[in-house]
Design goal:
The complex is a heterodimer. Chain A is mainly alpha-helical. Chain A has helices spanning 5-19, 23-37, 40-51, 59-71. Chain A is globular. Chain B is an alpha/beta fold. Chain B folds into four domains: 19-133, Ubiquitin-like (UB roll) (Roll), CATH 3.10.20.740; 310-383 and 587-765, 3-Layer(aba) Sandwich (Rossmann fold), CATH 3.40.50.740; 385-581, Dimethylsulfoxide Reductase, domain 2, CATH 3.40.228.10; 819-946, Barwin-like endoglucanases, CATH 2.40.40. Chain B has 29 helices and 38 strands. Classes of the chains: A mainly alpha, B alpha/beta. Chain A binds chain B through residues 1-3, 6, 10, 13-14, 16-17, 19-21, 33, 36-42, 74-75, 77-78, and chain B through 343-345, 374-375, 506, 553-554, 556-557, 598-599, 606, 608, 627-631, 634, 637-638, 640-641, 643, 802-803, 805, 807, 909, 913-916. Chain A: This is Formate dehydrogenase subunit delta. Chain A: It holds the Pfam family FdsD. Chain B: Residues 248-304 form the 4Fe-4S Mo/W bis-MGD-type domain. Chain B: It comes from Bradyrhizobium campsiandrae.
Chain lengths: 78, 957
């Protein structure tokens, strides 16, 4: 499995865990988790994927990533 | 330096708090009620002669040497079996006692070989000592009578004589030297709990018998060596002692195998290890050990160990031996070159859970401060990272809650996805001791492990289908909540009540009941209900779990579910209860504590925290990157994509231990510089450009932290055979990369750790020397450490209940892959086997076998011992089958100790949702008969042979 498919899969897996906590807790929960544990290149790749339409992402996950993207300023590739 | 002689008090210590005072040989002695007179005398410094008594086992009273006289009492009672009483007046040496003891010794010696000068136990023989102590000068009976000593007596074969049993690779059983004190039998029963030994026959025919008069190797003996340690004569002796002679000095150190962290005396002659003897003051092991720690240290001087640094341009080239400086500058130039070409984040490293805290700390420091990124991870990623996430979320600390002594206060033990009898044997022995005293055991495991049934142990076994842990945990919670078994007072006081209510409402849903989930889990609902009731109401309930919990897509969820159960039943915060991850490697707890995870600095503080970063930046004098780095599986993905090109791996064999081997091969092959720092040319080294030889745990100073958060010293007993201790190697590499780290001794590294890590603030080598060990947190609030955590409240404040919804893994069985493969370990081998395969332990386990149920085997025409092909969506391999009903129909099982099997060719790259911990424990497979190695195995073997070539230093002519 290669990026971005693998990243979409991982993000949805995180989304699935938070699903049972309901939308209002799930969205910030997912965003926080990805913020804390993903390396910048992974974040850049998934943000690029959102810009390209975000295909395959569960609604909660898409919402969480969109808000995270807005709140994040990543250093450029180095 | 001299030999550390531990006092043998003769009988175990009493735990009574009531004190009793008596007079022994004119001295007043005050001891706890229940103490034997023998022990009380030893307390007062008077050693009563003894042979069958030793303080590792209960008194037996058979040798009749420890007799005493008590004023006002008739006869001469044995001091080992006679308890103290207030006001007793005891005499340990009288004319009558002297005569009796001499008589007893005379009888013993009349049937014992007198080859003391050439005997293996010469200088360490209690029989010899006692003969001296009682003043034996003459044996009136002679040596010609009936005896066990001579093969022939009066020209005829002596039926009482038995030849030596040399079958065990590590110790010899010489029946002619046995005095039938039964210390070995009792050690096997009481200390180890295996019950492999007995005394067969009666009177003069009494013999120590492994199993039913079998050889030691052929019996149930697990070679823990407790019997050898207990033997007062040369009957059971380490072969190394027979070969080398008695040690002359010893040093206390810590075992480098599993997460139990046994303390040992390394008994030495010069720089040669004579034997390893478990240390009675070791708080993790209390004087016991297993076959690995006590005996399997031969790998440290195995001929395959690499002692010189090596480099090569391409992995197709043979290795070239070079100086340390050349290796460092070659490695540094490559790593810096990669950063110039691909960016600062294109390199990283993996710290070792086999190395010391100090070494691990240095590697992560080199990466964060020297490489300038946070691409550091450790093998805990692939074992217990979900424990870190799950327990930090619910309790607030990434570690187990108890010490091992806690099990002595436990009434109900729940073992989930762990097989301590194989993987944490010394803890298993301590657990079994408690079970024999009446504690109850629940085992949740797909396989009927050694824990489910063993002598005097019978567990309530919930044999679940692999991958359904969360469903089973939630069903247990369902029973506890719906049957009103919640400890509400505890939850109201210690936990967030609204989160609890939300959780309770969730688990109470009918679809989470044992009856509703049985179709997924395969667990009998009435057994599950029984288990829940026993855990919730049976007294102190303690959960111990292993990789069968963590190595799943829902590993973190299961850890959270376990924590929920413990909180709901009030089983946290006192001795005897708790949530206890059984950590795999000797220092996996330590490597996590030391900041080996890409998102966390030492002490589990997130890298994005500015205040924390400031502290490190000030001391390290660098600017730190605030973004988390890559985890191991992410590193592999990034390597394949071409953004991660250089890796420094200290003491870990990622190629063999990480899942989906072909993906790992692809990743390693894509990298431009792989630096392997290890004792051996391991499987990962087949793809390496630089090999830095490592040092063994015997060759360096440092500390390990075991599964109970106990920090213990590792002490150098010999010069590093490779020239440098591992911490010095990391410093050398760092220096070549332009990052200087100046330490003259590991104690200085620990001082830096203590200065930067609040939970380690009180730790220093001086304190460890003084106390022997401490459990973190060790700081101003807890200067002597913290055996039990969360006593007055959870570290995070209120305990957090989190809803745990069962989600089936995406790894599914189907027509092509109808069976589920799960993996595990065996007692004699350790992890990928790099160490134990290079010891005599291979006599117990020379190859990995596939356990398959008779039903599944018959359907496929597979017979016991046949070669079978094991195929998953990720790959295929071959190994031999073992037909057994330890596994359920539909489930197959194997170990992963041997590189030629490559169990991880089969495992997939599915992983835990929170931590990317791989899903080793569930793989859909098919099994079919086979003629021999798969194409993959052949190709792999050819590549490995090619890759391990070392160019001769000079041309032959």
């Amino acid at each position: 499995m290669s990026s971005p498919d693998r990243l979409v899969y991982m993000a949805n897996q995180i989304g699935t865990f938070f699903r049972s906590q309901g939308h209002d807790k799930a969205v910030p929960g997912i965003a926080e988790h990805i913020k804390k544990f993903w390396d910048p290149r992974m974040k850049r790749a998934i943000f690029a994927h959102i810009e390209a339409g975000g295909a395959g992402l569960e609604p909660n996950v898409l919402e969480a990533l969109t808000s995270l993207k807005q709140a994040t300023s990543l250093p450029g590739a180095q | 330096m001299s030999l550390i002689e531990e006092i043998d008090y003769g009988t175990p210590a009493s735990k009574s708090e009531t004190m009793v005072t008596l007079t022994i040989d004119g001295n007043q002695v005050t001891v706890p009620e229940g103490t034997s007179i023998m022990r009380a005398a030893m307390d007062a410094g008077h050693q009563i002669p003894k042979l069958c008594a030793t303080d590792m086992v209960d008194a037996f009273g058979s040798c009749r040497l420890c007799l005493v006289e008590i004023e006002g009492r008739a006869g001469t009672p044995a001091s080992c079996t006679t308890p103290v009483m207030n006001g007793l007046v005891v005499h340990t040496q009288t004319e009558r006692l002297k005569k009796l003891r001499k008589g007893v010794m005379e009888l013993y010696i009349s049937d014992h070989p007198l080859d003391c000068l050439t005997c293996g136990a010469n200088g360490d023989c209690e029989l010899q000592d006692m003969a001296g102590a009682v003043g034996l000068r003459d044996v009136r009976y002679g040596y010609e009578g009936e005896n066990h000593v001579f093969a022939k007596t009066h020209g005829r074969d002596n039926d009482h004589w038995m030849p030596k049993d040399e079958s065990n690779p590590y110790f010899t059983y010489d029946p002619s030297k046995c005095i039938v004190c039964s210390r070995c039998v009792r050690a096997c029963e009481e200390v180890q709990g295996t019950f492999a030994l007995t005394i067969s026959g009666r009177g003069f025919d009494s013999r120590v018998s492994p199993g039913m008069n079998e050889s030691f190797l052929g019996s149930e003996c697990v070679s823990c060596g407790a019997c050898v340690q207990a033997c007062p004569t040369a009957t059971l002796t380490e072969k190394s002692v027979i070969e080398i002679g008695q040690p002359e000095h010893s040093v206390v150190t810590t075992c480098a195998y599993c997460g139990v962290g046994c303390a040992f005396k390394a008994e030495m002659r010069g720089e040669e290890v004579v034997r390893m003897v478990p240390y009675k003051d070791g708080k993790a092991n209390r004087g016991h050990s297993c076959v690995k720690g006590r005996f399997a240290w031969g790998y440290t001087n195995h001929k395959e160990r690499i002692l010189k640094p090596m480099i090569r341009e391409r992995i197709e080239d043979p290795w070239k031996e070079v100086s340390w400086d050349e290796a460092f500058s070659f490695a540094a130039a490559r790593m810096r070159g990669i950063q110039t070409k691909y960016g600062r984040d294109a390199i990283g490293g993996i710290t070792s859970s086999r190395c010391t805290n100090e070494e691990t700390y240095l590697v992560q420091k080199l990466i964060r401060a020297g490489f300038g990124n946070n691409n550091v991870d450790t093998c805990a990623r692939v074992c217990h990272s979900p424990t870190g996430y799950g327990l930090a979320t619910t309790f607030g600390t990434s570690a187990g809650t108890q010490d091992f002594d806690s099990v002595e206060h436990t009434d109900v033990v729940v073992v989930i996805g762990a097989n301590p009898a194989s993987a944490h044997p010394v803890f298993a022995s301590r657990l079994k001791k408690r079970l024999r005293q009446g504690a109850r055991l629940i085992v949740i495991d797909p396989r009927r492990t050694e824990m489910v049934e063993s002598p005097h142990v019978k567990a309530l076994h919930l044999p679940l289908m692999p991958g359904t842990n969360v469903a089973v945990m939630t069903a247990l919670a369902h029973v506890i909540v719906t049957e009103g078994l919640v400890n509400e007072a505890f939850v109201r006081e210690r936990c967030d009540w609204s989160e609890f209510e939300e959780w309770a409402a969730f688990v109470a849903q009918p679809n989470n009941s044992p009856e509703a989930t049985a179709i997924l889990t395969g667990v009998d609902p009435s057994d599950l209900r029984e288990a829940a009731r026993v855990y919730a109401t049976g007294g102190n309930g303690a959960i111990y779990y292993g990789l069968g919990v963590t190595e799943h897509s829902q590993g973190s969820t299961t850890v959270i579910a376990i924590a929920n159960l413990a909180m709901a039943t009030g089983n946290v915060g006192r001795p005897g209860v708790g949530v206890n991850p059984l950590r795999g490697q000797n220092n996996v707890q330590g490597s996590c504590d030391m900041g080996s995870f890409p998102h966390e600095l030492p002490g589990y503080r997130h890298i994005s925290g500015e205040a924390v970063r400031d502290q490190f930046e000030a001391l390290w004098n660098v600017k730190l990157n605030p973004e988390p780095g890559l985890r191991i599986p992410n590193m592999f993905d990034a390597a394949v994509e071409g953004t991660f090109m250089g890796l420094y791996v200290q003491g870990e064999d990622i190629l063999q231990s990480d899942p989906n081997t072909s993906h790992v091969v692809a990743a390693l092959s894509a990298m431009e510089c792989v630096i392997v720092h290890d004792l051996f040319l391991n499987e990962t080294a087949n793809y390496a450009h630089v090999f830095l030889p490592g040092s063994s745990f015997l060759e360096k100073d440092g500390t390990f932290t075991n599964a109970e958060r106990r920090i213990q010293r590792v002490r150098k007993v010999m010069t590093p055979k490779n020239g440098l201790a591992d911490w010095e190697v990391t410093i050398g590499l760092a220096k070549a990369m332009g990052f200087e780290m100046k330490y003259s001794h590991p104690s200085e590294i620990m001082d830096e750790i203590a200065a930067l890590t609040p939970t380690f603030a009180g730790v220093s080598y001086a304190k460890l020397d003084e106390l022997g060990s401490v459990q973190w947190p060790c700081n101003e609030k807890a200067p002597e450490g913290t055996p039990v955590m969360h006593i007055d409240g959870f570290v995070r404040g209120k305990g957090k209940f989190v809803v745990t919804e069962y989600v089936a893994t995406d790894e599914r069985t189907g027509p092509r892959y109808p069976l589920l493969l799960t993996t595990g370990r065996i007692l004699s081998q350790y992890n990928v086997g790099a160490q134990t395969r290079r010891t005599e332990n291979v006599v117990w386990h020379a190859e990995d076998r596939l356990e398959i149920h008779p039903h599944d085997a018959e359907q496929r025409g597979v017979r016991d011992g046949d070669w079978v092909r094991l195929k998953s969506r990720a790959g295929e391999t071959t190994l031999r089958a073992e037909i057994t009903d330890r596994v359920a129909p539909g489930v197959v099982y194997t170990t992963f100790h041997h590189p030629d099997t490559q169990a991880n060719v089969i495992t997939t790259d599915y992983s835990d949702w929170a931590t990317n911990c791989p899903e080793y424990k569930v793989t859909a497979v098919q099994v079919s008969p086979s003629n021999g190695p798969s194409d993959w195995q052949k190709a792999y073997d050819a590549q490995a042979r090619q890759s391990r070539r070392i160019a001769p230093a000079e041309a032959a002519e």
